[in-house]
Amino acid sequence: MESAEVARRFLTFFEERGHTVVPSASLVAEDPTLLLVPAGMVPFKPYFLGQRTPPAPRMASAQKCVRTPDIDEVGKTTRHATFFQMLGNFSIGDYFKEGAIPFAWELLTRSEADGGFGFPEDRLWVTVYLDDDEAADIWHRKVGVPEERIQRRGLADNYWHMGVPGPGGPCSEIYYDRGPEYGREGGPVADEDRYLEVWNLVFMQEQLSKVRSKTDFDIAGPLPAKNIDTGMGLERMAAILQGVDNIYETDTLWKILDRAAELTGSTYGREHRADVSLRVIADHVRAGTMMVADGIIPANEGRGYVLRRILRRAIRNLRLLGGQDGGLMHELTAVAIGAMGEQYTELTRTAANIHAVIDAEEERFLQTLRTGTAIFDQAVEETRRSGRTTLAGAQAFTLHDTYGFPIDLTLEMAAEQGLQVDEEGFRRLLEEQRQRAKADAAAKKTGNLDVSVLGQLLDLAGGRVDFTGYHDVSGEA
Ligand code: ATP
Ligand code: MG
Ligand code: MG
Ligand code: MG
């Protein structure tokens, strides 16, 4: 079953059950608390909160999503992409658990000939929140799932919120057993590689006032009504239905992966590190293409910075595979536009613009690499000659400050050379520079001096920046 058909089938099923199909919102979140849309519920948030009247009490959508925090997982797990599509049915004060659970079961287990996904019942496992006897009861009594395939989990897995103040609630997840060749038995609690999470049913009932972490938040009170928000991963469904090992091998992503292998002269399935690179390239090229199509352009802050990181990471991985030439991104973007164009006609319509933006970013980054690489190589030379294994913070800082090498790139390239980087030293120098800039700005009363990217990031992240995700391309993490 093609990816586009997975979406069609989902939407048709819910349309036939009284849901109004709503088109995907842009990846650029209207919601000021978010940079990018990470879940299908985002456009529905004002309805859950009772701030706006929904066009219909029952709705369904296929929403474009980007999850930046998952970037480290891409290519390494079988199931995480930065860009993916979330299929969802929503009830705003209409049906609750007793409606959502049987709907989900019916769609998954109904035969393909009959408009369902045809999953064998005994392959499905479900989880519910610790004390959610109501949901467990519906799964067992109403749907008929044997008790041993209903597992209970705590806040980290079975309570969903946006990570920012807003609606939230306990959830119930559905997992597909891929079989013993994928891992240990014992259900999702034992092994999430073997038991693939495909669908999350969220029972939106509370309003969160403060969110400190996934498991640490304050509940202000109940929402005006009890709501349903569900999210099914289209790519994960496609992987199961297409009988492939992971989401990067499903129809759309595979086209990009395959072309990347061809362009770099590499063979997929031969060596782990190269496979990870190819999967990262496929994911990132598609994510970049979708982001540009929604009007994002590479920049040093905000969404533009996320896009820049994603595009540059794709380019870096192409180079790791031996793809040194310019123009590779152009070829791959064209494949991504072709692969996604059926579902998203705006891609074909705006192809020229997408290419212009991505080509320019490739050129800019290759230029940075050309000038900076010689300096980097020299720094590696010096480090080795002096018998050290750590690149000095000052060297990383010079690369950043004078040659435009972002710290993530330095970390990544150093790791490829088996070297570490004195990140602490780097950050100290950066902070000193920031303070100087601040003082200058205050002195000049312009308040408008160019603050470094990292500085802005530090501000965004409330002083905490996590760079660990960039070691991965080296295969080190
Ligand atoms: P996981 O535990 O596998 O990271 P999750 O619990 O974070 O997934 P949810 O927030 O429940 O995911 O999102 C709903 C659904 O969206 C998931 O059940 C899954 O099918 C899909 N999904 C979530 N994150 C990704 C991703 N990074 N790439 C592809 N699909 C995803
Ligand atoms: Mg996750
Ligand atoms: Mg999960
Ligand atoms: Mg989940």
TrEMBL record:
Superkingdom of this protein's organism: Bacteria
Chain segments annotated as transmembrane: none
GO terms for MF: alanine-tRNA ligase activity; aminoacyl-tRNA deacylase activity; ATP binding; tRNA binding; zinc ion binding
EC number(s) reported in the record: 6.1.1.7
Record keyword Aminoacyl-tRNA synthetase present: yes
Subcellular location: Cytoplasm
Enzymatic class: ligase
GO BP terms: alanyl-tRNA aminoacylation
Record bears the keyword Ligase: yes
Cofactor(s) the record lists: Zn(2+)
An example Gene Ontology CC term for this record: cytosol
Record's keyword terms, sorted: Aminoacyl-tRNA synthetase, ATP-binding, Cytoplasm, Ligase, Metal-binding, Nucleotide-binding, Protein biosynthesis, RNA-binding, tRNA-binding, Zinc
Cofactor binding remark: Binds 1 zinc ion per subunit.
Reaction equations catalysed: tRNA(Ala) + L-alanine + ATP = L-alanyl-tRNA(Ala) + AMP + diphosphate
Residue stretches making up the Alanyl-transfer RNA synthetases family profile domain: 1-477
Family per similarity comment: Belongs to the class-II aminoacyl-tRNA synthetase family.
Domain description: Consists of three domains; the N-terminal catalytic domain, the editing domain and the C-terminal C-Ala domain. The editing domain removes incorrectly charged amino acids, while the C-Ala domain, along with tRNA(Ala), serves as a bridge to cooperatively bring together the editing and aminoacylation centers thus stimulating deacylation of misacylated tRNAs.
Protein's job: Catalyzes the attachment of alanine to tRNA(Ala) in a two-step reaction: alanine is first activated by ATP to form Ala-AMP and then transferred to the acceptor end of tRNA(Ala). Also edits incorrectly charged Ser-tRNA(Ala) and Gly-tRNA(Ala) via its editing domain.
Entry protein name: Alanine--tRNA ligase
Species this protein is from: Thermomonospora cellulosilytica
Species lineage: Bacteria, Bacillati, Actinomycetota, Actinomycetes, Streptosporangiales
Gene: alaS
